[in-house]
Amino acid sequence: MKFFVDTADVNDIRELQDAGLIDGVTTNPSLIMKANRPMKEVIADICEVTEGPVSAEVTATDADEMIREGKILAEIADNVCIKVPLTLDGLKACRHLSDEGHMVNVTLCFSATQALLAAKAGATFISPFIGRLDDINLDGMALIADIRRIYDNYEFDTEILAASVRTINHVREAALIGADVATVPPATLKALVKHPLTDKGLEQFLADWQKTGQTIS
Ligand code: E4P
């Protein structure tokens, strides 16, 4: 399973990239707003930090304008993945941009049939939003499972990018189902490494080691 980090904070991205934990980055207009800098600058900086796909989202709502914006974003760096919303216009833009050889991430997916359409439109990634479905008492993980089954049935190459991931358990379950990628906020990604028994065990080992009076040299 690949991990993308879901943020536009370049410092967080650099830290996780240096630790070898991430394979790419996803941003959205809300994350760009938090970064409080011009979008093209932020995306360019992120693309310098990571070689993996960096999703940059269009903000137009009609297909022609999405295509125009998408091409501008794609010029920033070779690893920009153009993110379009799962609307009819978004799918038209996806088909066009994908046919021209661009990576496309179709976002805001909330149903398996939407995901089927995105795959048919040539999406590189489909982003089903787990957390936002859970927020309204629907089952985000069931959606990941449905999409996995449908994509396997028809051998689509579109990668399932589990998004709106909020918990360690979301990552675990998405991995068990076989999502290709999870995009995870920095804090949740860092939390994946933690276990109280690891901390306790390490503390004991170090204390015992000190008692031996030895050093490794
Ligand atoms: C992914 O591409 C989305 O930007 C993100 O995962 C949305 O997460 P949220 O529902 O926590 O805002």
From TrEMBL:
<dbReference type="InterPro" id="IPR001585">
    <property type="entry name" value="TAL/FSA"/>
</dbReference>
<keyword id="KW-0963">Cytoplasm</keyword>
<protein>
    <recommendedName>
        <fullName>Probable transaldolase</fullName>
        <ecNumber>2.2.1.2</ecNumber>
    </recommendedName>
</protein>
<dbReference type="InterPro" id="IPR013785">
    <property type="entry name" value="Aldolase_TIM"/>
</dbReference>
<dbReference type="InterPro" id="IPR022999">
    <property type="entry name" value="Transaldolase_3B"/>
</dbReference>
<comment type="pathway">
    <text>Carbohydrate degradation; pentose phosphate pathway; D-glyceraldehyde 3-phosphate and beta-D-fructose 6-phosphate from D-ribose 5-phosphate and D-xylulose 5-phosphate (non-oxidative stage): step 2/3.</text>
</comment>
<dbReference type="InterPro" id="IPR018225">
    <property type="entry name" value="Transaldolase_AS"/>
</dbReference>
<dbReference type="Pfam" id="PF00923">
    <property type="entry name" value="TAL_FSA"/>
</dbReference>
<dbReference type="GO" id="GO:0042182">
    <property type="term" value="P:ketone catabolic process"/>
</dbReference>
<keyword id="KW-0808">Transferase</keyword>
<dbReference type="InterPro" id="IPR033919">
    <property type="entry name" value="TSA/FSA_arc/bac"/>
</dbReference>
<keyword id="KW-0704">Schiff base</keyword>
<dbReference type="GO" id="GO:0004801">
    <property type="term" value="F:transaldolase activity"/>
</dbReference>
<dbReference type="GO" id="GO:0005975">
    <property type="term" value="P:carbohydrate metabolic process"/>
</dbReference>
<dbReference type="GO" id="GO:0016832">
    <property type="term" value="F:aldehyde-lyase activity"/>
</dbReference>
<feature type="active site" description="Schiff-base intermediate with substrate">
    <location>
        <position position="83"/>
    </location>
</feature>
<comment type="function">
    <text>Transaldolase is important for the balance of metabolites in the pentose-phosphate pathway.</text>
</comment>
<dbReference type="GO" id="GO:0006098">
    <property type="term" value="P:pentose-phosphate shunt"/>
</dbReference>
<keyword id="KW-0570">Pentose shunt</keyword>
<comment type="similarity">
    <text>Belongs to the transaldolase family. Type 3B subfamily.</text>
</comment>
<dbReference type="InterPro" id="IPR004731">
    <property type="entry name" value="Transaldolase_3B/F6P_aldolase"/>
</dbReference>
<dbReference type="GO" id="GO:0005737">
    <property type="term" value="C:cytoplasm"/>
</dbReference>
